[in-house]
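Q: For a teaching handout, I want to show students what a protein-ligand complex looks like in token form. Below are the inputs, and the small molecule is uridine-5'-diphosphate-glucuronic acid. Please produce the holo structure.
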Amino acid sequence: MNLCIVGTGYVGLVSAACFAEMGNDVCCVDINPEVVENLRKGKVHIFEPGLDEIVKRNTEQGRLKFTTSIKEGMEHALFVFVCVGTPSKPDGSCDLSFVYQVGKEIGQNMQDYKIVVDKSTVPVGTADKMRSIIAEELKARGVSLEFDVVSNPEFLKEGDAVNDFLKPDRVVVGTENVRTAELLKALYSPFARSRDKLIVMSVRSAEMTKYAANCMLATKISFINEISNICERVGADVRDVRVGIGSDHRIGYQFIYPGMGYGGSCFPKDVKALIDTSRQYEFEPQLLASVDEVNNRQKHVLSGKILKYFEPQGGVVGKTLAIWGLAFKANTDDVREAAAFELIRDLTAKGMKVRCFDPVAGPNTRKEFAGDPNVEVVDEQYAALEGAAALAVVTEWNQFRNPDFERIKKTIKAPLIFDGRNLYSPSFMGELGFAYFCIGRKD
Ligand code: UGA
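A: Here is the structure, written as tokens, with uridine-5'-diphosphate-glucuronic acid included.
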């Protein structure tokens, strides 16, 4: 099949590469000429395990092409996937200007029947608006062409996106048109071989499903973080509580790891956007508002522990904290809404210096804190510890799980660890002679 994919971010590029891998001819459109030029040479601008290889192979074999022209991209395509960004506005609502701009350009360039597929995360009602934007453009051109707009939200996780795309739990297709549903079923048949993996529903239900899924997962995280805060106060250990509740298959073990609060480009934005949508319909979403609030509070729990610890020792002014992990989670260089940044801001505001390390997110962090003399990013894990009064572990990269504790002790000023991801065993840390503070356990 011939596809056009507009937007070469995480969702667009991963979808394009995986569709091409299954033998489809895919033309990707991006407004950034530099990104397009690099992709043509097989150079991928985002860090996503396994993606480089698939992009390179399919580009070399001619199934994956890149252009800055939507006209060219759409020329032979039956499907036009919209995979552009939907950032949050300052009030929490979703900025749809990129999506609607693409809608206009589709209307301006359409020459024959197209199925326009919204893959970006968009509020309920966006597909209807897209339909009218495209229709207006066609009317302005004085042409009458048939087209369809469907919702097909993406459920991929950064760091595991290729795998999620190739082996999805489910594929959700929102359309009221039976023929369009059949065409999408055919397109997805290599990924969702079992028929019940492909779920067809109305456009609005599909748009809502995306938000409901992310908000459910965000709720699980805020729930366990709330429990962890209570555990700390009552003298329980949240790690045991997690196993105790996760063993009930109705609850499950996944997404109940307490930590630094959820970050990234999806959960914080999507929870806020659904709150906003709900308020537009004059319904106060009390649970979602609390999920968001609990998450904002959680991002300051570790800095609170650090400030409290150093208070009797004259505070943190002039002291240095080593930080391991800057990305919002492991296996990505993405630092959007990263808990590490909140930690850095909290502590440098109190006069502490930080020396940070991350396996891949160093460059993005340097950009964020450029010119701040209190923030240093180093390229080696143990170098971050030199002269530091303590170590804070913020992202759960595998290389932090079993470090050389003797080397840490030798390098750092005092054997003191604040662990925002509960990577180590408190009793083992005690045996090694570390003062150890983690999440959800009485200090
Ligand atoms: C999330 C969803 O998991 C995907 O299904 C969805 O498609 C995607 O958003 C999206 O809407 O595009 P992602 O943001 O890549 O994917 O990351 P997650 O792995 O879900 O992690 C989100 C945040 O929650 C991270 O900060 C992570 O550290 C935190 N988290 C996750 C916890 O604190 N505890 C957990 O138990 C799980």
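A: Two things your students might notice: The mean pLDDT is 96. The longest strand covers residues 2-6.
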